[in-house]
Amino acid sequence: MDAAHLQAGFGVSTRLFKKAVHRNRIKRLTREAYRLQKEAVLQVLKDSDFRLSVFLLFTGRELPGYLQVEKKMQLILQRIMHIINEKAAPHS
Predict the structure, then answer these.
(1) Do the beta carbons of residue 9 and residue 54 sit within 8 Å?
(2) CA distance 75 to 69
(3) Which positions ≥6 away from 80 have C-beta within 8 Å?
(4) Which end of the chain has fewer CB atoms within 10 angstroms, the N or the C?
């Protein structure tokens, strides 16, 4: 599968998380949750012949645990797939 169908970036505010170690941990958690769940989105993109670039910005104020990040990532990716399916569906 062509990885160029989907690109993702991740960011964390320096205003909310002053320490680089905290920002890096959040980015590491979100990248891992994304990596483990992106296959479904890739398949939807391939089927609809779309390309997508996304940038996810962490807006929480507390350091999250992995399970929290994983659940939120699942919701985000489901919403993205829903939007792609709506755009790909022929209008009646």
Answers:
(1) yes
(2) 10
(3) 41, 52, 54
(4) C
Neighbouring residues of 51: CB distance < 8 A, sequence distance ≥ 6: 4, 5, 6, 45
The CATH number assigned to the domain holding 75 equals 3.30.230.10
Domain encompassing residue 67: 3-88
Cα–Cα distance for residue pair 13/59, rounded to 1 Å: 7
What is the Cα–Cα distance from 26 to 12, expressed in whole angstroms?
7
Tell me the per-residue pLDDT of 34-74, one tens digit each, with 9 for 90 and over: 999 999 999 999 988 899 999 999 999 999 999 999 999 99
